[in-house]
Specification:
The protein is mostly helical. It is built from five helices and no strands. The radius of gyration is 20 Å and the shape is globular.
Length: 155
């Protein structure tokens, strides 16, 4: 555990801890995406667009939880705030899904790359786009400034 804390402190001092944790969970999300894609495509013999869509749904749900809880440590105070955050997450992921499908089409149908090779290459583009979307639009840090209240002067 000592090595972990030293590593974490080092990365925090360099302001890289959040990026490291995102890449770690982004890697796990990519594994979820690729495994579900491979199962859908190879085991259940679904077409690649259907397999890609199924893998997207599983990886988006996994990514929302890991991004919210461990990467950006986002706190929401109400069900409505959680729904708003999840909605923004889904919109951003739909955009990156469009990028995913476009890249898959390019690599598979136009360049005749193997499906899993195309999936691996595409995931790099998607992970970078999703980090930017999450950091800038979804899990923004909000600074709370508390006003100092004084009861010294009556109104």
């Amino acid at each position: 555990m000592k090595s972990y804390h030293q590593f974490k402190n080092y990365l925090e001092a360099k302001r890289l801890w959040e990026v490291f944790v995102y890449l770690f969970f982004g890697g796990l999300t990519t594994v979820v995406n690729i495994v579900v894609f491979a199962l859908s495509y190879q085991v259940f013999q679904l077409d690649w667009p259907i397999s890609n869509t199924i893998s997207w749904v599983f990886s988006v749900l996994f990514a929302f939880v890991t991004n919210k809880v461990w990467v950006f440590q986002s706190k929401t105070e109400s069900l409505g705030a959680l729904a708003w955050e999840f909605g923004k997450f889904i919109v951003a992921r739909v955009v990156s899904f469009g990028m995913d499908m476009a890249c898959m089409y390019l690599f598979i149908d136009m360049l005749h790359t193997g499906n899993l090779v195309a999936k691996l290459i595409t995931q790099v583009v998607v992970v970078v786009a999703n980090y930017i979307f999450s950091k800038v639009f979804i899990f923004k840090k909000v600074e709370v400034i508390e006003e100092e209240k004084t009861n010294s002067s009556p109104r």
